[in-house]
Design brief:
Elements lengths: L8 H47 L11 H44 L4 H15 L10 H25 L4
Length: 168
């Protein structure tokens, strides 16, 4: 029995399927890392609020209340972890977004419609309508990084108040 000879369009169809699968997979991975960054930031913010809430009930000055150093060290570690985790997830998300762009370019080369021109036009319109919030002007990862840096700085300030500021 003779095997069927594949049609010349079969490899093209298989490559299109592969490109679509790669696009889907990398889009899903980019979303996954953004969700992970969101959840790690939420956990850091919640834990920092709990630690500060537990530190608040004490009466009197903070100076020489060495039990608060544990709170401060925890906040320092929490801020550091959050900052590094956020950087990691940002980097991974950007990698997958770059892969999506590469796949989209390749798909665009094979179609009669220029997808890249359509996206460029949509991006220009969006940039006009939301100039202050567009990708060129607002980088949301700076806000995530700022949240974690603030947790770190609050821990540092708490440690400084306990160790170095009489009457605080």
């Amino acid at each position: 029995m003779k095997e069927p000879v594949p049609s010349p369009s079969a490899p093209a169809a298989q490559s299109q399927e592969l490109l679509l699968a790669l696009h889907h997979e990398n889009s899903a991975q980019a979303r996954h890392h953004e969700q992970q960054r969101h959840w790690s930031a939420a956990i850091v913010a919640l834990a920092a609020a709990i630690v500060l809430g537990l530190a608040a009930p004490g009466t009197g000055p903070l100076y020489h209340r060495y039990s608060l150093l544990l709170h401060a060290v925890f906040l320092l570690a929490l801020g550091t972890f959050g900052f590094l985790a956020s950087l990691h997830h940002h980097e991974r998300s950007r990698l997958h977004v770059q892969r999506v762009h590469a796949v989209r370019r390749r798909i665009s080369e094979t179609l009669p419609v220029d997808i890249l021109d359509l996206y460029a036009e949509a991006n220009r319109e969006h940039g006009k309508r939301f100039a202050t919030l567009s990708n060129r002007t607002a980088r949301i990862h700076y806000l995530w990084q700022g949240l974690h840096a603030t947790v770190f700085l609050v821990g540092l300030a708490l440690a400084a108040l306990v160790l170095f500021v009489p009457g605080a």
